[in-house]
Amino acid sequence: MNPQTVASAPTTEELQELALEVRTYLAKRREEGAFTPQADAWTHEWNPEFSRELAAKGWVGMTIPPEYGGHGRSHAERFVVAEEMLASGAPVAFHWVTERQIGPQLLKLGTPEQREKYIPGIVRAEIAFALGMSEPGSGSDLASVRTKAEPVEGGFIVNGQKIWTSSSHRADYVLALVRTSQEENHHAGLSQLIIDLKNTEGVVARPIPASIGDDHLAEVFFEDAFVPEENLVGVLGAGWQQVTAELGYERGGSDRFMSNMALLEAFVGRTEPRPASTEKVGELVARMLGLRTLAAGVMESAGAGRDFAIDAALAKDAGNVFEQEMTYELRGLGVPDEDEYLVGLLEHAMLYAPTISLRGGSAEVLRGITAKNLVGR
Ligand SMILES: Cc1cc2nc3c(=O)[nH]c(=O)nc-3n(C[C@H](O)[C@H](O)[C@H](O)COP(=O)(O)OP(=O)(O)OC[C@H]3O[C@@H](n4cnc5c(N)ncnc54)[C@H](O)[C@@H]3O)c2cc1C
């Protein structure tokens, strides 16, 4: 059984053809040595050239309208292309989060000038954004962020710190959630600012050495950094509503259950089948199909312009549980010590496993969102 084929089975002939085209291309590039499949590649395999290659094929910014350089394709088409990229373990981190949520956010809330300035570069994978939400002491309780952007003539003076800001030491910009006024209700007074990470005096981004085996975690410090007023995204003071909507894009996709496809694929392809492993892999693939249905539901809501923040929270939580359990199950089944590649993938997945239910919102937070929705609050 090839888990990639099963998990990626799209539903119409056109989508199947598109998926096959992407799969064939990625397999060819892999054979040519352009990349070695990695677990969790979308978070840390940073390769601007490869992202640009995919962009040139028309596979980045697919749903962005042509007037902004996009391809005007459907959300379903983007969905199957994203699945193929995830399944291949290709190095897509440079464009991943920027394409996934910054493009849509700017399309929805950006001024005409912001759209002109940033979206074509996103579609061509020329620019990368980091996500500037978390701060020391403000992760789950995101509304407590303290990074202050004081309105001044022509813009804002920003002071504070963001943490766990993935790849911000390599990205061009950060979309930062900042406090623009002090209000009694701490969900009020927040705003989103685009901050140029490479050309703003008083902004320093640096990697955080971590035990997860790569250097994608980073932090950003702001010290009297001037940010021009044209970098305000959306409405001053509406940052909370904006960021929670943005988190729907962050949470609801296939990346929340397909991060470790390279590991599953390698496990199936490189270990001798045993009754226990065949049964377990079958079970994992079956679970993945259920998760795919959840993610497809989120994708459909996004395409139809419906609110999908709650569905996305539910999908992410279910996906996180699956990804962690898959890693532990495969470790339990065991891999040959002499297979360095497979051992490396498993070790990486083991190190990442605890972070999976933290990044993008912890399990408890996601369940809280879902529960509140169920009781109608
Ligand atoms: C690999 C990785 C990448 C990340 N990338 C980014 C990024 O690019 N940009 C960004 O802004 N952030 C990023 N983050 C940060 C991430 O969003 C936070 O780690 C997450 O929101 C949790 O916040 P925290 O780390 O402050 O933990 P805390 O909020 O301190 O939570 C610690 C634990 O306590 C639990 N907890 C907290 N409050 C409650 C409560 N009220 N009820 C029950 N349980 C609770 C949490 O569920 C969690 O298990 C990343 C994190 C990781 C691990």
Main β-sheet, spatial strand arrangement: 1-4-5-8
Query: CATH architecture of the largest domain, please?
Result: Orthogonal Bundle
Note the total helix count.
13
Structural class assignment:
alpha+beta
Strand content: 5-15%
CA radius of gyration: 20 Å
- The amount of helix comes to 40-55%
List the helices and strands and how they pair.
Elements: H1 3-7, H2 13-31, H3 41-44, H4 48-56, H5 75-88, H6 93-109, H7 112-123, E1 129-132, E2 148-152, E3 155-163, E4 173-179, E5 190-196, E6 203-207, E7 218-228, E8 232-233, H8 239-251, H9 261-270, H10 275-304, H11 309-333, H12 340-356, H13 363-374
Parallel strand pairs: 1-4
Antiparallel strand pairs: 2-3, 3-7, 4-5, 5-8, 6-7
Bound molecules: flavin-adenine dinucleotide (FAD).
Flavin-adenine dinucleotide binds at residues 130-134, 139-140, 164-166, 355, 358-359, 361-362, 364-365.
Compact summary:
Helix content is 50%, strand content 13%.
Account of the 3D structure:
It is a single chain. By secondary structure, the chain is an alpha+beta fold. The protein folds into three domains: 3-127, Acyl-CoA dehydrogenase/oxidase, N-terminal domain (Butyryl-Coa Dehydrogenase, subunit A, domain 1, Orthogonal Bundle), CATH 1.10.540; 130-239, Butyryl-CoA Dehydrogenase, subunit A, domain 2; 252-374, Up-down Bundle (Butyryl-CoA Dehydrogenase, subunit A, domain 3), CATH 1.20.140.10. It has helices at 3-7, 13-31, 41-44, 48-56, 75-88, 93-109, 112-123, 239-251, 261-270, 275-304, 309-333, 340-356, 363-374, and strands at residues 129-132, 148-152, 155-163, 173-179, 190-196, 203-207, 218-228, 232-233. The chain has a four-stranded mixed β-sheet with strand order 1-4-5-8, with helices on one face. Strand 2 and strand 3 (155-163) form a beta hairpin. Helix 2 (13-31) runs parallel beside helix 5 and helix 6 runs antiparallel to helix 7. The longest helix has 30 residues, at 275-304. Mean pLDDT is 94; it is low at 1-9. The structure holds flavin-adenine dinucleotide. The site of flavin-adenine dinucleotide has 17 residues, from strand 1 and helix 13. InterPro entries: Acyl-CoA_DH_CS, Acyl-CoA_Oxase/DH_mid-dom, Acyl-CoA_Oxase/DH_mid-dom_sf, AcylCoA_DH/ox_N, AcylCoA_DH/ox_N_sf, AcylCoA_DH/oxidase_NM_dom_sf, Mycobact_Acyl-CoA_DH.
